[in-house]
Amino acid sequence: MASYSERLDSLQSGQSAVIEKLATGGSLEARRLGSGAVMFYWRYTQEKRTERMPIGVHDPAAPPRALKPTARGFGVQAALERARDLAKSNRDVPGGLRAERLRRSASDAAEAQARVAREQHSLKALCTDYCDWLKSSGKSAHADAANIFKNHLEQAYPELVGKPAVEVEKREVVAALRRLTEAGKVTTARKLRAYLRAAYACALHADSDAAIPAKFIGYQVTVNPVEGTAAIKGQADKNPLSLPELRKYWKQLKQEDGVIGAALRLHLLTGAQRTAQLTRLKDSDTAGSVLKLLDPKGKRTEPRSHLIPVTIPIRNELGKLPQRGLVLSTDGGRTPMHSTSMSTWAQEAAAKAGISGFQLKRVRSGVETLLAEAGIPREIRGQLQSHGIGGVQDRHYDAHHYLPEKRHALETLHRALEGKALAKRSRASSASV
After folding, report:
1. Any alpha helices (H) in 153-231, and if so which ranges?
2. What SS3 state is found at 183?
3. Measured distance CA(412)–CA(421) in Å, rounded
4. What's the angle, vertex CA 197, arms to CA 131 and CA 387, rounded to 5?
5. What would the pLDDT profile of 304-333 be if each residue is shown by its tens digit?
6. Phi and psi (nearest 5°) for 378?
7. Pairing mode, if any, of strands 16-21 and 290-295?
8. What is the Cα–Cα distance from 43 to 46, expressed in whole angstroms?
9. Helices (H), ranges, 224-311
10. Which of 17, 36, 79, 218 is the most buried (most CB within 10 A)?
11. Cα–Cα distance between 167 and 224 in angstroms, integer?
């Protein structure tokens, strides 16, 4: 009978041969590979199916009696020893080796599927889903959130946004926030933290809050990594326009022609409403004695009706704007003016008036400061500009729209803009501001 070495040497490329049958089950098999090397296998038959488990390549220089492989491979005795071990360890496996392989394959497939699911539920996907949800909920912040995420996460940290959202760590969030604060962009950093925190909150509470879309459950978030980051502090940048500056601005606006001038005057005469809300005004919202704006900000699921009394100056400006479709429009009511455009036009008017460092938000804070000086109570100023309204009393009990009080505030504003002296505050009004 040919020796082991002779049988191995006689193997042609692609040819297999049983080297020895094993008492423990199966046999040792050798096969000549296309590379010329010989590979050892443990061959096993289960339910008329032949399975082969690789052992390793043959090392012709291995000691003939060695029971352990060398650095280059297996001698025949070492291969036989490994085959016996495999036979013993697989003898009692339910269903045999093939069943075990199928179980391992199923486990690998499940793990691969879970890995793909994690990759699909990346931080970028979470941000996108959150912005889509804001948009479908009627929240005007969706565009700002999408812009913040794109510029300060996706473009700045492409590897981070590609990670599964569930694997993002607090330190990575802090790094993104620090990049902005060190660049002096404190407001942007504060916004990024707020939006990202809210996005993770959706994923965290989706399995217990029916108001949150079910797609957020797939992120499998159990911890909000933004929750543990410190709040970004910064001094409030109010810098309101002074009364003289407001009067100079108003005087210039009265010289601005066309719908742009009328729109800017309407903005100021209504108490400097948020332009994102004002530009959505339709002709149907101006009927009667009030303007109906919708305030979607905050946690409310439905936009809050925000009513503005129509004073005589406001009615005059409305008559100069489109009467059908969108009121603040440069194409006859088909498309709205953009907040950015209104800000640019206002800056141009302020520059003509000689106002330096102008920003449209300074008009809003300037109006509130003016009204405070005129003795308009804090509560009425909040009702007029739709801020600070979110408590239980406001949401559930107080149905009063404060229209007489708002009208008085707007008439006070117009008189002040026209150069009339502000009434001195009484003790009672001073205490309420």
Report:
1. 158-162, 170-182, 186-205
2. coil
3. 10
4. 80
5. 788 999 999 999 999 999 999 999 999 999
6. -55, -45
7. unpaired
8. 10
9. 243-253, 258-269, 275-278
10. 79
11. 11
Is the entire prediction scored with pTM above 0.90?
A: no
In contact, 219 and 121? CB cutoff 8 Å:
yes
**Token digits of residue 400:** 């009063």
Residue identified by tokens 């009696």 is 65
How is the chain split among helix, strand and coil, in percent rounded to 5?
Answer: 50, 10, 40
pLDDT per residue over 217-229, tens digit each? 999 899 999 998 9
Question: Can you tell me the distance from the alpha carbon of 91 to that of 154, in angstroms, rounded to the nearest whole number?
Answer: 54
pLDDT of residue 138: 80
Half-sphere exposure of 145 (CA within 13 A, CB side): 23
Are the beta carbons of 143 and 158 closer than 8 angstroms? Answer: no
Tell me the pLDDT tens digit for each residue of 73-90.
Answer: 999 999 999 999 888 877
Distances from the Cα of 362 to the Cα of 30, 241, 287, 359, 368, angstroms: 85, 5, 30, 5, 10
Mean pLDDT of 335-363: 93
User: Helix, strand or coil for residue 354?
Assistant: coil
Per residue in 147-204, pLDDT (tens digit) is 999 999 999 999 999 999 999 999 999 999 999 999 989 989 999 999 999 999 999 9
Q: In whole angstroms, give the CA distance from residue 20 to residue 343.
A: 88
C-alpha span between 340 and 342 (Å, rounded) = 5
- Provide the 3-class DSSP secondary structure of residue 335: coil
Q: Residue 433: which pLDDT band, with cuts at 50, 70 and 90?
A: very low
Share the mean pLDDT of the chain.
85
Task: pLDDT band for 297, please (50, 70, 90 cuts).
Answer: low
Q: Are 402 and 383 in contact (CB under 8 A)?
A: yes
- Strand ranges, E, within 284-406: 290-295, 304-309
Q: Above 60 in pLDDT, residue 27?
A: yes
User: Which residues, listed in sequence order, are joined to residue 22 by a DSSP beta bridge?
Assistant: none
